[in-house]
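Predict the assembly for these two chains.
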Amino acid sequence: MNEQDRDRLLDLLADRAIEGLSENDERELAELLDRVPLEEAELFEDVLGQRTADSVTEPGDLSPELVRRITEEGERMVGGPTIPGPPAPPSPARRPWVERLSWLALGLLLAAGAAWWLRGGPNVVADEPTLAERRSRLLDGEDTLTRSWSAGPTAPEVGDDFDFGDVVWSRSEQEGYLRIRGLPVNDVTREQYQLWIFDETRDAAHPVDGGVFDVTDADGETIVAIDPKLAVREATLFAITVESPGGVVVSDRSRLPLLAKVDDAS
Amino acid sequence: MSITILQRVARGEQSAVGECIARYGGLVATLANRLLRDIREVDDGVQDVFVELWKVAGRYDPDRGTEDAFVSTVARRRLIDRRRRNRNVPRPTALEGDLPAPTTSDPLERHDVADRLRDLWERLDDGERDVLDLAVHHGMTYAEVAETRGLPLGTVKSRARAGLRRLREGLRHEAILHGEDPP
């Protein structure tokens, strides 16, 4: 960045902190910051914020009505509904009579050819549903949305009509599944895929971490259960990035192969 | 370090909402009165600020400054944006009395960056400090400062910009001296 650009950048940052910028100046600032990102771009605002906090010697009052409005709104936006966990797989049936038998008694029963034992008791061990089955059940949900993946900035090179799969999400169940096709197999010792869920009620700079996963079959389909770390109230965008093993707290989004926008009904 | 109110909000603790409003509602109300031109907008402006706080609470970093400074920064930005959208409403520029001296914060909340900033602010040139004080204490725009002090607009802008740059350099220098990452 040349000295003139730097001076202009600092002037715009100062003006923004003091009185805000016009639309043209905001655009100019954004372009300058794009060319040369400045880590302390918010420093002037922080400085005035600190000074402002110091300057308030007698805080004002809020009317009870205003407090009530702000509180109600805050309680809606913070925390939200109790997050129901993903449906637990059915428990294996218990066979209480097994626990009462000693190994000796069990051996005797087996020795006596107790075929009736092998037919099982009143409860049967239920097969745990597969991810595909759980995904299928969720598709019937009232508020379930399904959106196809589209190519992100670092998507693999494939044909324009390539089907990358889709994401299924239920707000009421706080449950969802990714169906992924076309992503390369990742070397788990070096990298993993990570899902991010952008929430209308949260800061876009901090999307909700939806969990990490691996792709083990480049030619087939991978189904992954979404594992949101926080309640997702109003999903607006799903994004998959490539990160170090275990994932990251904040992604630099430098490798972003897939996106699915909620308002693009597909 | 104990967890702060905003960090609890960021974690989704609804019980922190009421505490946040009780703790910072007065601060935000004062800033809304300073920065907004239309008294009828103050309540909406305050509510606007808290909506923003619920969204960005997770960005508060105790290493960068005090929590009330973060709230003030968020409030200033939202209220200035709101003011720009309604810029046609005139505001009296007469000052009443001297500018209040900033309080030294509660010792329990004292923070290195805040202390350094206080010292650096006092060491600004008189002209630079005056312009910035009017912006902070009275929420004045450049034009309003120029009118209040009878100065050319360009002079006011130069002093404000120079003052902020001087504070920035001072904070960076102090951070380096203390072996910290410069802001």
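The two ends of chain B are 21 Å apart (CA to CA). Chain B has a mean pLDDT of 85.
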